[in-house]
Amino acid sequence: MSSREEIKAAALRFVECINAGDSKRLVELQTEDFTFTDMAGDTFVGRDGWEGYFEPYPDYKIHPQKILVSGNSVAIVGKTTGSHVEPRVEVL
Questions:
Q1: How far, in Å, CA of 64 to CA of 79, rounded?
Q2: Which of 18, 40, 76, 87 is deepest in the core (most CB within 10 A)?
Q3: Nearest residue to 4 via CA among 77, 73, 69, 75
Q4: How far is CA 53 from CA 5, 6, 41, in A?
Q5: Res. 88 pLDDT band, cuts 50 70 90
Q6: Calpha distance 57→34 (Å, rounded)
Q7: How far from 35 is each of 42, 74, 86, 91, CA to CA, in Å?
Q8: DSSP 85
Q9: Would you list the domain boundaries of the chain?
Q10: Which residue from 35, 39, 28 is spatially nearest to 72, judged by alpha carbons?
Q11: 62 neighbors 90 (Cβ within 8 angstroms)
Q12: What pLDDT, in 10s, does the model give residues 46-76?
């Protein structure tokens, strides 16, 4: 991808898949060297790990508030709901 808008759109497609609980489509969007770091600081590399991810948190949603693009990297700042954190943290 070359333009900032294309990169941002790809990140938003990823969020859409998460919000839909679509682990199969998430894997299709990922590259072989995809890196995911969770809230605990654990890092996962590759396309594995999404199977069963949504089972314990079926209402998990990401609510982006700001999307930052630098080169080919994207940071999404926002909140989540339906996750493992306390409800007071999830207030929109």
A1: 7
A2: 18
A3: 69
A4: 28, 27, 16
A5: low
A6: 22
A7: 10, 12, 26, 27
A8: S
A9: 4-81
A10: 35
A11: no
A12: 887 677 778 887 888 999 999 999 988 889 9
Record the tokens describing residue 85, joined without a space. Answer: 């954190």
Q: Which amino acid is at 68?
A: L
Structure tokens at 91: 């207030």
CB 74 within 8 A of CB 66: no
Residues 60 and 49: their CA atoms lie apart, in Å, by 16
- Report whether pLDDT(1) > 80: no
Q: What is the DSSP letter of 90?
A: S
More confident residue, 65 or 34: 65
Token pair for 1: 């991808």
